[in-house]
Amino acid sequence: MVARLKPRFRHVLWRNGSVAILCGLLTFAVVHFFHNTAFFGGEAEDSLDFLMRLQAESGDVPPGPDITLVDFDEGAFVALGRPDIIPRDAIANVLARVAQAGPKLVLLDIDIGWPDAKPREQVLADELSRLAKGPGPMILAVREKLENTSGIATPYLRPSPYDAIAAGSTRVRFIASQIIENEAGVAHYIGIMEPMCRDTTSMVLPGIHPAALAATAPEPMNAFDALDNQLQAYRRPCTANDPPLRPKPLNTMGVAGQNVSWKRNHDTERIPFRLGWQEGAVFSHSSPGLVVLPVSQFLQPNADIDDSLLRSHIVVIGSSAAAMRDMHLTPLGFMPGSLVLGNALRASLGEGFLQESSIYIDLGLTLVISFFTFGVWAILRHFMNVSVLLMREGLKLGMTAFWGILAWTFMRHGAALDFAFPQYVVISYLIYAEGLEATI
Questions:
Q1: Dihedral (CA of 244, 171, 84, 330) sign
Q2: Angle between helices 88-100 and 118-133 (to 10 degrees)
Q3: pLDDT tens figures, 247-277
């Protein structure tokens, strides 16, 4: 077909086509090289955040397990006398009432390692011992790391009165909840595991994803034991200079018959935020699949609580009170850390975490959009004599359609395709093509 065209048109096709390929390859190479920088990588992350907001506002989110958030809110803190830490006997009462309703899983997003009065600690220890040996749900208690203690630079785990209860084959286990922010301070990632030190002894706590899979397995205690053995095989003695993990990379784990794998820095996963936060929400919420219950109802004697809001749900016990300093900026706005973990749990047991596309998919998309740009320019401008203004509008419509395809891929399949590659291809090609107008 090209041979039948006039020499001038053949020249236009070959010249523009060659430049389209070069623009695609060069742009891909540059953007891929700087993929994780604030300029290129940040723009792709912002695009995904925008899509998450649109999806959450429309309510068109993939189905997932129901989340119930039991919240120690400002009202509860006032009623408790604004304590420095949440009283351990109050936590014990909430755990007892929640477990009685038959939830699928309980996540305690309050670090019980901080000391309280001995009698209150004993009340919680007794309740945890009862739950650890009973037939109820798994209780995952979040532990927080401390930095720079005892001359060791690696994270340090504070001893607690409940260490013996959470050790061994019981229904109470300690986990880590490492929420990781990007350069702009937006919470995007959750840790897979957290190596910690206690003096010269090291241990590795599982993160939300592997812990949730193990805790909801048909035999959760056996699954958790197998997970723990897998993680502890990678620990080594803690010193001031060496990390507690062995240098050997760990890119995948087998948990309850499933493979958990990750790519980013070998230890994090990108959270698809579906549940937003509404200040002061009680018994209802703007996000589908989420119920927020104020903890004050659990602390009242003989309180009438609807068990259907807890039964078979994933229950997260946390706090949105300002004194806890646990609010995070996310793609859906500010929310307490307990709801960030709720979103992570929903991904773990539902749609899964966002998966980055491979380099081959990104390269293929880049070349497709470069040829699309070239084709629109060549056909509309040189063969149909369309003005540059109309040509630009045609490219805009084409790019809008392409973004729609990427948005559908993200919303339906959780594929985090890189939006930066095709965008920079179009910019590069238009700069060349507009300059070419003066010579053709």
A1: positive
A2: 20
A3: 555 667 777 677 776 655 557 788 889 888 8
- For residues 276 and 295, give the distance between their C-alpha atoms in angstroms, rounded to a whole number: 19
Residue in the structure block whose two tokens are 């070239």 = 374
User: Which pTM was predicted?
Assistant: 0.77
Tokens (6 digits) for 182: 């990007």
Pairing of strands 268-270, 187-191: antiparallel
For residue 180, the number of C-alpha atoms closer than 13 Å in the C-beta half-sphere is 18
Helix (H, G, I), strand (E, B) or coil at 327: strand
Strand order in the sheet with 179-181: 179-181, 187-191, 268-270
CB–CB of 370/23 below 8 Å? yes
Backbone angles phi, psi at 317, to 5 degrees: -100, 115
Beta strands in 237-383 (DSSP E): 252-255, 258-261, 268-270, 290-294, 314-319, 327-330, 333-336, 355-356
The β-bridge partners of 204 are 195
pLDDT in tens, 188-243: 888 888 888 776 677 888 889 889 999 998 899 988 988 888 887 767 667 655 55
Round to whole Å and give the CA distance between 354 and 122. 42
Q: Which two tokens stand for residue 222?
A: 């056996």
Beta bridge partners, 252, equal: 261
Q: Which two tokens stand for residue 134?
A: 């009973």
Per-residue CA distances from 272 to 68, 331, 406 (Å): 18, 9, 15
Q: Which distant-in-sequence residues (6+ apart) come within 8 Å of 366 by Cβ?
A: 24, 25, 27, 28, 421, 422, 425
Q: Long-range contacts for 25-28 (Cβ within 8 Å, ≥24 apart)?
A: 25/366, 25/367, 26/428, 27/366, 27/370, 27/421, 27/424, 27/425, 27/428, 28/362, 28/363, 28/366, 28/421, 28/425
Question: What is the widest separation between alpha-carbon atoms in the chain?
Answer: 93
